[in-house]
Design a protein that fits this description.
The chain is mostly helical. It has helices at residues 3-12, 14-25, 49-69, 93-101, 112-123, 128-143, 151-166. The two termini are 57 Å apart.
Length: 168
């Protein structure tokens, strides 16, 4: 260490001097010396035409997977593909069942964005199970100083999602 670092460690106190001593006592890593010239280290990837073909094949497979697996958008909120973020926009019983099934014990979902949105979607249902899930969600949101989305806010989010995914 240089004089400036020694002075800094001295100003920090004796506890830091022990930390510095432990760090300096650690072993240093040295490069492997027994490699023959031209021989690659064991952790290096051999550069052969075969490795380039494998890499190109993997890139092509990923590109095809993205093309065929990527969800397509709909033109209305009811046609938006159901994901954890869009299930609240679908006005179906299956969507509400998926929302209730994914609710946590404390009444929330994975984040407050989803909790506000899903609570608003559950509010419209007359089924007892959905009402219980709605009340648990509202209790959670109130404990955080939040409230469910209004019907208008939920409708606007659904339209925005449909419009955004339609352009994909």
């Amino acid at each position: 260490m240089n004089a400036d670092l020694e002075k800094t460690v001295g100003e920090l106190g004796p506890g830091y001097r022990d930390v510095v001593a432990r760090l300096r006592a650690a072993r240093e890593v040295e490069p492997e010396k027994d490699l023959a010239p031209g021989r690659a280290a064991p952790w290096c990837v051999a550069r052969s035409p075969f490795s380039y073909l494998v890499a190109a094949s993997l890139v092509a497979a990923l590109a095809l997977a993205v093309l065929y697996v990527m969800p397509r958008g709909g033109s209305t909120a009811a046609e938006v593909p159901l994901t954890v973020y869009t299930v609240a926009y679908a006005p179906t019983e299956e969507a509400l069942e998926a929302i209730v099934a994914s609710q946590r014990a404390d009444g929330s979902w994975s984040n407050d964005f989803l909790t506000r949105q899903n609570a608003a979607a559950l509010r419209a249902s007359d089924e007892d199970r959905m009402r219980v899930a709605y009340r648990r969600a509202v209790r959670y949101l109130r404990s955080k100083g939040l409230s469910p989305l209004t019907d208008e806010e939920l409708r606007q989010r659904g339209e925005y999602a449909a419009k955004t995914l339609a352009g994909v």
